């Protein structure tokens, strides 16, 4: 696996700066080979191309961690059931992906790189198919929107309830959503903002500013009574209940969603672990869920919440971006760390934790964009 990982990373460097071209060629080649597949995807494909690259990068980042790779690919296979993908479609997609790499890399693409990607893709496809085959749940759940609240011009907090069987998930995971009434066949991932509950309700925090068509619809157009589609849960930013380590949570903007779910889960059983939550935004008005966090802290002595703003001199709390403030309160070497927010914020936090010598196995993160 070490040699395979090396070849994959070396070859990816050849096409990394041509991501848009790779994804465009991949989809064009796939739809030309099997036109039926075009109907599985939205009219606007820009976001879907981003999803392809995110999946490739995630697989590459975990290729040398067999257990994590297996978990990710099986969950990805379960998630892809929402597209009604057939087993034979995986071969078409694999051929299209390799063709895109060869075309974009040109003469620098070698036989060794080609074989490495063939081997890697076979592993990816087999495990995704195994994950899909092992799932007895529906390809997606129909869920009715129960409440919808605007928290400022571009943020909404809403809840929905699956109408079929309950959706099984863990606090900290995310799902793909579709709003068929407003953006059919357009799926995007959003973290669930609450821990599993007896009412089988799901809470989501969505920001629309620069986030695309579906987020705009979820913030501005969706209302109670609308039906959404919710795909299988994914993600490993979950709690290890056997751990005795204290907990650090770092959240930026609507990255608070999975952090809030983790805190809710901890309130049900935690008695001994100190939990420190750093919640940051540019301005105080963007800390849209601060009151709820402070209420939780009031009821649980082990929970501390430190809000901060990076561009609001009038804010009465900590000044500076969330990573700067979190660093001032360290060290965090012996903590379980959970990070969620924009790609830039997550990158900065991971660098700070690495400098603090936090073991990578003690860090879980969720990002809105590529890390």
Automatic annotation (TrEMBL):
CDD domains hit by this protein: Mb-like_oxidoreductase, O2ase_reductase_like
The keyword DNA-binding is annotated on this UniProt entry: no
Annotated keywords: 2Fe-2S, Heme, Iron, Iron-sulfur, Metal-binding, NAD, NADP, Oxygen transport, Transport
Residues in Globin domain copies: 1-133
GO molecular function: 2 iron, 2 sulfur cluster binding; heme binding; nitric oxide dioxygenase NAD(P)H activity; oxygen binding; oxygen carrier activity
Reaction(s) the record says it catalyses: 2 nitric oxide + NADPH + 2 O2 = 2 nitrate + NADP(+) + H(+); 2 nitric oxide + NADH + 2 O2 = 2 nitrate + NAD(+) + H(+)
The protein's required cofactors: heme b; FAD
Record organism: Micromonospora polyrhachis
Name this polypeptide is given: nitric oxide dioxygenase
Superkingdom field: Bacteria
EC number in record: 1.14.12.17
Family per record: Belongs to the globin family. In the C-terminal section; belongs to the flavoprotein pyridine nucleotide cytochrome reductase family.
Enzyme class: oxidoreductase
Residue ranges of domain FAD-binding FR-type in the record: 138-240
Gene3D superfamilies: Globins (1.10.490.10), Nucleotide-binding domain of ferredoxin-NADP reductase (FNR) module (3.40.50.80), Translation factors (2.40.30.10)
């Amino acid at each position: 696996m070490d040699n395979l990982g090396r070849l994959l990373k070396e070859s990816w460097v050849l096409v990394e700066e041509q991501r848009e071209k790779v994804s465009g060629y991949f989809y064009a080649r796939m739809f030309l080979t099997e036109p039926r597949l075009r109907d599985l995807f939205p009219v606007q494909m820009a976001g879907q191309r981003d999803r392809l690259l995110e999946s490739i990068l995630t697989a590459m980042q975990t290729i040398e961690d067999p257990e994590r790779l297996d978990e990710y690919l099986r969950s990805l296979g379960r998630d892809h059931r929402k597209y009604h993908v057939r087993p034979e479609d995986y071969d078409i997609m694999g051929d299209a992906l390799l063709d895109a790499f060869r075309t974009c890399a040109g003469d620098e693409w070698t036989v060794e790189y080609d074989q490495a990607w063939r081997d890697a893709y076979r592993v990816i496809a087999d495990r995704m198919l195994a994950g899909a085959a092992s799932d007895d749940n529906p390809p997606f759940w129909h869920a009715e929107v129960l409440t919808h609240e605007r928290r400022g011009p571009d943020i909404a907090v809403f809840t929905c309830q699956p109408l079929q069987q309950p959706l099984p998930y863990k606090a900290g995971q995310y799902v793909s959503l579709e709003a068929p009434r407003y953006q059919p066949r357009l799926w995007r991932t959003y973290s669930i903002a609450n821990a599993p509950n007896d009412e089988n309700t799901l809470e989501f925090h969505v920001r629309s500013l620069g986030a695309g068509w579906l987020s705009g619809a979820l913030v501005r157009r969706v209302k109670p009574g609308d039906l959404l589609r919710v795909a299988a849960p994914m993600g490993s930013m979950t709690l290890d209940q056997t751990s005795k380590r204290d907990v650090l949570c770092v959240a930026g903007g609507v990255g608070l969603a999975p952090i809030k779910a983790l805190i809710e889960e901890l309130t049900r059983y935690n008695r001994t672990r100190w939990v420190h939550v750093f919640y940051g935004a540019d301005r105080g008005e963007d800390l849209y869920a601060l009151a709820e966090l402070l209420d939780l802290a009031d009821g649980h002595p082990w929970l501390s919440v430190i809000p901060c703003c990076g561009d609001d001199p009038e804010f009465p709390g900590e000044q500076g971006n969330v990573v700067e403030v979190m660093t001032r309160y360290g060290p965090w070497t012996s903590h379980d760390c959970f990070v969620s927010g924009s790609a830039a914020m997550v990158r900065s936090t991971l660098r700070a934790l690495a400098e603090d010598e936090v073991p990578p196995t003690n860090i879980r993160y969720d990002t809105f964009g590529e890390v």
